[in-house]
Structure formats: C-alpha cells, structure tokens
User: Which sequence fits this backbone?
C-alpha cells in the first residue's frame, strides 16, 4: 500500500524505479542465462539460448542506462524483447525436438505466448494507456518461460 501511494503521488519517479528494477532483472537474468548456457555448450539449441540471453542483456542495459525514457520506452523494449525471445524459444524448442527431448513443446508454447503478448501490450498500452498491463505481461512471460525450462530440464534428467 505504501508503494502504491508513492507511485500515485510521484508517478514519474515510480516509472524510473520500475524501469531500473526491470532493467536489473533483465540484465541479471541475461547474464545468468548466458553463464549457464556456456556451461552446457553441447546442449541442443545452444546458439538460440545464447541469442535469447544476449537479448535479455541488451534489454536490461537499455532500461538501466535510460530509465528516464518512461513507461512507453519500457513498453517498446519489452515488446521487442518478447518478439525476439518468442522466436528464439520456438527455434530452441524445435532444436530440442530434433534431439528427441520429450518436453520440447513447452518451449514452443512459451515462444507462442511471448509472440501473442508483444502486440497485445503495444495495442493496450498505446490505445488504452493501461499501465497495469506491463507487470501482468512480465509475470506471464516469466511463468511460462520458467515452466518451459523446468519441463525441459526434467525431461533431460537421467532416469
């Protein structure tokens, strides 16, 4: 409640705080993703995972270096990230299918969800100025992304 009141009283500062938080989250996730990908170079979809991690790092750098660009900049960066990451997850899933990983469909579902969310946030944000949608989209992306990677990792575990 306190943070909500803070955001209502100082919306510009709240947007900067959200931009910085999202930027550091994307940056951290990208660095961690790149590090874990480098440890598993022989895994299927290696280059798609590298590209996805680099996209996350770039999105994080943009959001942390230019936090004053505001809400619409975050929306554009997030939409671009979702499109790129969606394509990478679909290709990553297809690479896993070739390697006979049983859970490859979850990666494809994650990519399709990302591709669906990207235009959705652009339309809703720029037409209806729906500030509430941004955290919802990020949450949906993180849930599907996390679940798909857990499913693939579980299928790769030796029995």
Assistant:
């Amino acid at each position: 409640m306190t943070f909500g009141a803070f955001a209502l009283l100082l919306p510009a500062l709240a947007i900067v705080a959200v931009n910085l938080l999202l930027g550091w989250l994307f940056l951290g996730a990208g660095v961690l993703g790149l590090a874990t990908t480098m440890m598993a170079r022989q895994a299927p979809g290696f280059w798609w995972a590298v590209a996805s991690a680099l996209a996350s790092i770039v999105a994080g750098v943009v959001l942390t270096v230019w936090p004053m660009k505001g809400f619409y900049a975050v929306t554009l960066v997030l939409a671009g990230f979702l499109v790129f990451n969606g394509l990478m997850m679909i290709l990553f899933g297809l690479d896993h299918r070739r390697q006979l990983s049983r859970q490859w469909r979850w990666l494809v579902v994650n990519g399709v969800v990302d591709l669906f969310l990207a235009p959705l946030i652009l339309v809703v944000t720029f037409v209806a100025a729906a500030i509430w949608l941004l955290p919802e989209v990020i949450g949906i992306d993180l849930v599907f992304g996390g679940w798909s990677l857990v499913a693939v990792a579980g299928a790769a575990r030796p029995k």
Remarks:
- Residues 2-156 form one domain.
- Residues 11-39 form the longest helix (29 residues).
- The chain has a mean pLDDT of 79.
